[in-house]
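--- STAGE predict ---
source: upstream dedup step, 1 unique chain passed
mode: sequence only
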Amino acid sequence: MVAATPTPPEHVPDLAGTVPESWRPYVDREALRGVEHFLAHEVAAGRPIQPARAQVFNALHHVDPGDVRVVLCGQDPYPTPGVPIGLAFAVTPEAPIPGSLRNMFAELHADLGLPVSATGDLTPWARAGMLLLNASLTVRPGAPASHAAANWPAVTFELLRRLAVERNGLVFLALGRHAQNVVERLPLEGHRVVTAAHPSPMSVRMFSGSRPFSRVDAALVELGGRPFDWRI
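--- STAGE serialize ---
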């Protein structure tokens, strides 16, 4: 006998309503509905979710599709309770800077000579034209990759695919194998890809000296643009 499909809880989180108007054509509503149902079951089971609902699509609130110049792909939000803000690799201004981001800042200083930031809030990068998008946009606090089953990648990959088709001259910064696997599946004609090892403390020796930030700038110039504003 085939088991019946569980009925989702009555109160399904409305994430579609938090997507900015300019980005709505890029979001697969049917795929997002599946994510909403997964999250509804998490809530019904008493399991917390982060970031907060209003911040889940924060990466889309700081840059319009037509203003994106660089796409930085992440995996999922930090599981540390209370620190993710809906931007890949970023944390709240008052949170300690995670090891991966600390290594990124050290490489940014070595690469471009910029001072090492005292905050892990990467909102200035988003406002300067960077889409900081994780593959999964939510997580259970204390449980890395706990929302992999939510099928978030069906939403985020389709968003990136539509953006790559619609726009021209983007630079994709793919740090680590996971991000590289995502980016290499995109339609990349007219775009550039910069790859490097993940800045995690476990792979920092391969990341250090890779100069991804100056390579992004060179790719932007090659595409007829100006270097990115990396200041925080």
